Amino acid sequence: MPADESGLEINVHRSDALSWAMVSRAPDPRLRPYVSDYQGYRERAADPMRRLQPPFDGIPMIVTFGPSIDIVNGDRPAQRGAFRSFLAGLHDVHVFTEYLGEQMGFQVNFTLLGAYRFLNITMSDIANRVVDLGDLLGDVASDRLADSLRDTADWPARFDVMDRFLLERLRQGRPMSPDVAWALKTLQASRGARSIGALSRDLSCSRKTLIQRFHAQIGLSPKAVANILRFSHAVERIRAADEESWADLAVSCGYYDQAHFNRDFRRFSGRTPREFQASLLPDGGGIAG
After folding, report:
1. Cα–Cα distance, 279 to 186 (Å, whole number)
2. CATH class, 9-171 region
3. Is the pTM of this model over 0.90?
4. What is the pLDDT along the chain (289 residues), one digit of tens a residue?
5. Which is the CATH superfamily of the domain at 178-284?
6. Are 50 and 96 a contacting pair, CB within 8 Å?
7. SS3 content of the chain, % helix, strand, coil (to 5)
């Protein structure tokens, strides 16, 4: 969708049961290594709205301006929490988000490089967890950010607020170590195909050392990250509605065969590739849960 004069791209969906407006704009160019994309949103659901959130190679931060959102562990549905503003660590399990009524907020998708610099924590401490933003940034900073976004007059100004906030926070952060950053970039370039043994040999370090560094600075092991990258590539292809057989898609995405492809989809989304495809909501609305 083409951007308007302010650089915003707006995606709108309207039906009796569900409507949304999603607003996106490219982050400040100085944030490019650290933030993959921004999105503001406003939604209304006449019935409980449940979305699947599968793993991907990024860290989402949500700042809501209204009611809380329920987060449900896909593997353990009894694990449920209500959050207003939160950040989700790197996951290799799927979760669901649920709400009823109105929702309005702002989402930042950090790159793995950016999340480490933004948070300055041991990333394994939040892996497969959703954490209240106040617990990570402090209640004062979290509330100030939410209030600034809510009280700002329009979406272009909200994107400016987030640009300034992130530029200041990231300026103070600690960068990822060069060896881990290189290994991550190599894994991403190969869509998870580069072996852990090859990475450790290239870096002249042991597999154990590389795994420990990944846990500390990314959150999960190199093997887990590679699996997420391969799965994410398959999801991109399915979203793009590429016309090919499931077996061909599996092989082109780096899976040994369709059985392994199906197994990963079950693991990461709780459904088969065909069921996943059938769950895609219209107009870029996500994945129905």
Report:
1. 32
2. mainly beta
3. yes
4. 556 667 899 999 998 888 999 999 999 999 999 999 999 999 999 999 999 999 999 999 999 988 899 999 888 888 899 999 999 999 999 999 999 999 999 999 999 999 999 999 999 999 999 999 999 999 999 999 999 999 998 999 999 999 999 999 999 999 999 999 999 999 999 999 999 999 999 999 999 999 999 999 999 999 999 999 999 999 998 888 766 788 888 988 988 888 999 999 999 999 999 999 999 988 888 999 8
5. Homeodomain-like (1.10.10.60)
6. yes
7. 45, 25, 30
